[in-house]
Design goal:
With about 300 residues, this protein is an alpha/beta fold. The chain is built from 11 helices and 12 strands. Strands 6-3-7-2-8-1-10-9 form an 8-stranded mixed beta sheet, sandwiched between helices. It has a two-stranded antiparallel ribbon with strand order 4-5. Bound molecules: fe (iii) ion.
C-alpha cells in the first residue's frame, strides 16, 4: 500500500478569521455567516479523517524575512511552534509534522527538478493555522500531522501559476510513491482578489474570483496560464496568493468533483470563498478512491505604465 491524495481543500487564510475565533466572535452577526459556511466542511473532514494534511500557504514574514526568501519550502520537522505575529501566538496547539513523508516529498520533488528548501525549524503563522481552525475547530491537539509547504508570494519574483500547478502534479506523484498506507488531504490557501494597501485597498473582483473557481474544477489549465500582471490588475496586489490554490489543484486528479463551495458572506468585505473538492475514481484494481505582503511596488508601477 502506498500513500495517496484523497481530496483537496481551498480556503482563505485571512488572519481576522483566526482572531474572530480566538476572541469568541463566531456567533456575532458579522462573522456568523462565515463560520456557518464551514460547518459542513468540518463535518466532512471529520468523517474523512485524513492521516496527514499538506498545507500550502505563505509565510507572512514570521518564519522568514527579507534576508532569506525561499520560493518553495517544506517543513520537515517533527513539530512547528505557533508564530508570534505581534499579539502573542494564537491559542492553538503546536503543529505536529510528519518528517518521514515530508523528507520523501523533498527527495522526490528535487529529483523531479523542483528546488525545494528543506526547513527543519520553523514557526507557522496564520497562513497555516487559520485554515486548520476553519476545518478542525480548535481541538486540544490537531487531529493529524501536518506538512507545511510555504510558497513565496511576498517578494517578487514569485512563482508562476504554471510552476505551481506542475509542482502540485509532482506532489501527487511523490505522495503516491511513499510506501505507507496514508490518506492525504492537501490544502491550497490564500485570499482570492484582495489588496491591502494603496489607492485600490479593499479591492474585490467577484467576476474574476468566480471564473477562477469555476475553472479550478473544470478547466484548471485556463487558470494555470494567468500571468502575474493579470493577477495584479484583476485580483489586486495580494491576489497573487491564488497561485497556491493551483498547487492543490495540480495534486488532484484531472477530473474532479466540487463537493462544496461556500460563497462569500454577503456582509463581509473580504474573502471567505472556500471550496472543497473530493475526487473519486476507480483505480486499476477496481477500488474506489475518494478522491504577501508588500507586493513588489515595481510590479505595480509596471502595471501603471
Ligand atoms: Fe496571506
Amino acid at each position: 500500500m502506498v500513500a495517496r491524495i484523497i481530496a483537496g481543500v481551498a480556503t482563505s487564510h485571512i488572519p481576522a478569521v483566526g482572531a474572530a475565533w480566538d476572541n469568541g466572535k463566531t456567533e456575532e452577526p458579522y462573522w456568523q455567516p462565515v463560520f456557518a459556511g464551514f460547518e459542513r466542511s468540518k463535518e466532512w473532514i471529520a468523517e474523512v479523517k485524513p492521516d496527514v494534511c499538506i498545507v500550502v500557504y505563505n509565510d507572512h514574514m514570521s518564519a522568514f524575512s527579507l534576508e532569506i526568501v525561499p520560493t518553495f519550502a517544506i517543513g520537515c520537522a517533527a513539530e512547528f511552534p505557533i508564530a508570534d505575529e505581534g499579539w502573542g501566538p494564537r491559542p492553538v496547539p503546536p503543529v505536529k509534522g510528519h518528517p518521514e513523508l515530508a523528507s520523501h516529498l523533498v527527495q522526490s520533488l528535487v529529483l523531479d527538478e523542483f528546488d525545494i528548501t528543506i526547513v527543519n525549524k520553523m514557526a507557522v503563522d496564520h497562513g497555516l493555522t487559520v485554515p486548520l481552525t476553519l476545518m478542525f475547530g480548535q481541538p486540544k491537539e490537531w487531529p493529524c500531522p501536518v506538512i507545511p509547504l510555504a510558497v513565496n508570494v511576498v517578494v517578487y519574483p514569485v512563482p508562476t501559476g504554471h510552476r505551481c500547478y506542475r509542482l502540485g502534479q509532482a506532489i501527487r506523484k511523490a505522495v503516491g510513491s511513499f510506501d505507507q498506507n496514508l490518506r492525504v488531504v492537501i490544502f491550497g490557501t490564500g485570499g482570492m482578489s484582495h489588496q491591502l494597501q494603496g489607492p485600490r485597498a479593499g479591492l474585490i473582483n467577484r467576476p474574476f474570483d468566480t471564473r477562477f473557481l469555476d475553472n479550478l474544477t473544470k478547466d484548471p489549465e485556463a487558470n494555470v496560464g494567468i500571468p502575474h500582471l493579470e493577477y495584479l490588475r484583476e485580483a489586486g496586489s495580494e491576489g497573487i496568493e491564488m497561485v497556491m490554490w493551483l498547487i492543490m489543484r495540480g495534486a488532484c486528479i484531472a477530473s474532479i468533483t466540487c463537493r462544496r463551495r461556500t460563497p462569500r458572506s454577503a456582509t463581509s468585505s473580504w474573502k471567505t470563498s472556500h471550496l472543497m473538492r473530493t475526487v473519486e475514481h476507480e483505480d486499476l484494481r477496481g477500488r474506489t478512491r475518494r478522491l504577501r505582503s508588500e507586493t513588489s511596488r515595481c510590479a505595480e508601477a509596471h502595471l501603471r505604465r
